[in-house]
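In keeping with the milestone schedule agreed at the kick-off meeting, the structural modelling team has produced records for the first pair of proteins. Each record is given below as a sequence line and a structure-token line. The laboratory manager (R.T.) confirmed that both were archived under the project's standard naming scheme.
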Amino acid sequence: MQFNKHSLLLLLILWACSKKEVTQQDTPIISEIATSLVSEIKIDSVSLAPEKYSGLGRLELINNKIVYLDLVDHTVNFFDESLKLEGMYGGQGSGPNEVRSINYIAEAPGSNYLMIDNFGFNVFENDSIKLSFKLFDWDSQTSSQELLANPNAEDKGMYTIDWNPNIQSNFTSIHNGFLYLPIITEHPEMNAYQEEEFYTDTYAIGKFSIESGKLEKMGVNWPRFYLENKFIPNFAGLDLTHLNDHLIVGFQTDSLIHIYDENLQLVKKFGVSGKGFKYEYKRTRTVEEAIDSWDSDLMDQSYYASLWANENMVFRIYHPNGKNGRTKMQVYQDEVLTHDVQVPQRFRVIGKIGDYYYADGHVSETDESLFVYRFKLSP
């Protein structure tokens, strides 16, 4: 049998559609609520005294230590398990243990940690000795001029790290020698602001080798909600963490938490819509319109925020009325919703020491105070 190019194209389209439908049907979706849903927990706060403090930064928990990353001074303050200052490291410069800049700090294999910036990452030992610096290797031989003229979502050179400006996000995960980060393309013909191809064709997460810095694999596509509500680029963001051998991903407009394997293949989804969450968004048509409405969008409209997971627990923060309103936290145990509680306005679960879970936290330029939240899930 002979095919002309039109019939072949039709067959390819039909094959692609049927493949997509089977994939969706084969992905389990779990939405289960515990019989006794907990609606309130006790939350304490503990003051921290860093050596340097600008009032703009974030807290993390690395190797059983609370870490304050100052995004102005590019310094890192470590606090021991009793929350006493252990030391300050980093700082901008070209010295042996100084860094060019820091956007994020994350725990690495062994007792090491990474200080990540726009171009790569420094690998540090636990005693704050810099071991190496790795540039992000995007593994593309295509020139920027060629990509500009012929955009291709499969070409790794199309992408860059997506540093979500929402400081209450968790946007990195390290597992089995690989660093997982959100990636994004801002190509004029394939961007989140006004191009459908961004949501149908591009990838949202990159898998980088810690050994070489090379982008080994791209994966994770945008949920269909984004295409159905074109365009809401101010909410085209995600949060990620890992649990055992799986990557846990949450999109800002999706009640479902997506579970991927190490190769970024979708395994299943679970989740329950947050109380009072409204899936109604102001749509924009131009880059300028989206930028102008950035602040008001996040202040007034619902969105899901950070994720953190440990053992069989997954914690998810959400804002049912935007940043101006309440902040709430869902807790899932074995993929069953067990808690839906109100928490302080800036609240992002960062880890666990002993019986306490810790959360970032009050970081203020106004009153120059810094403290971390802690709580237990059982009496």
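The second protein of the pair:
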Amino acid sequence: MDIQFETLFNLFFRLDLEIFLLDTGMFRLDTEIFLLDTLDH
């Protein structure tokens, strides 16, 4: 396998992972806000 291709692949994989973690973080934030709203009422 080409070294340049492998580096590119690793870069995309890391990007996917970070986006996934960001999505999970946003979801957790939404859930916490929802819970706070529910407790408020």
